[in-house]
Amino acid sequence: MISQFNCQRCGNCCKTKSGGLSISDDDLKRWRKSKRIDILEQVELLVFDNEKGIPISIKGKNWDENKHAVLCAVLWFLPDGKMLKCPFLRNIDKKKYECLIYDILPDDCKKFHFDDNGIPNKNLSDVCPEVRRISRE
């Protein structure tokens, strides 16, 4: 079903899910390998610092997988704990949005519309016009 999904670019998922996205180690590795510092600067990590022997908070751009074991990783939080909207969602006209990182999305974003079996989550049909369309088929 994931292959049948054709994003309508309404931006509703990003506006609904903004702030507090979980980030996987694979996300961090993919962004580092692709030199996506713009994304890594938005990531807050709680890591266990192997050299200091304590948990510390760092930005994703400072993550070193050889020195830091990730305990928790989230996107778009301010240091005071407030959530932000996705900084990579751009409005291109009154009804259409563009994801500036669509080619390298966090795993959490990729899976947002689907259950663990890759079936569109019908609970999102009020948020997502494409889930609504697929659910009717």
Topology of this protein?
Layout: H1 12-17, E1 21-22, H2 25-33, H3 37-40, E2 43-49, E3 54-59, E4 68-75, E5 89-91, E6 97-99, H4 107-110, H5 129-136
Antiparallel strand pairs: 1-4, 2-3, 2-4, 5-6
List keywords for this structure.
137 residues, alpha+beta, 4-stranded antiparallel sheet, two-stranded antiparallel sheet, 5 helices, 23% helix
Quick structural gist:
The chain is 23% helix and 21% strand.
Q: What features would you describe in this structure?
A:
It is a single chain. A hairpin with a 4-residue loop joins strand 2 (43-49) and strand 3. The relative contact order is 0.24. This protein has helices at 12-17, 25-33, 37-40, 107-110, 129-136; strands at 21-22, 43-49, 54-59, 68-75, 89-91, 97-99. It folds into 2 domains: 1-18 and 85-137, no CATH class; 20-82, no CATH class. The model has no long low-confidence stretch (mean pLDDT 84). It has a 4-stranded antiparallel sheet with strand order 1-4-2-3. It has a two-stranded antiparallel sheet with strand order 5-6. 23% of the residues lie in helices and 21% in strands. With 137 residues, it is α+β, with helices and mostly antiparallel strands.
Taken in chain order, the helices and strands follow as: HEHHEEEEEHH
- Label the structural class: alpha+beta
Percentage of β-strand residues: 15-25%
Helix content: 10-25%
Order of strands, main sheet, comes to 1-4-2-3
Count the DSSP helices.
5
* Mean of residue pLDDT values: 84
Number of strands: 6
Largest sheet: 4 strands, antiparallel
The value of Rg in angstroms is: 17 Å
Tell me the distance between the termini: 11 Å
Q: What is the number of independent domains?
A: 2
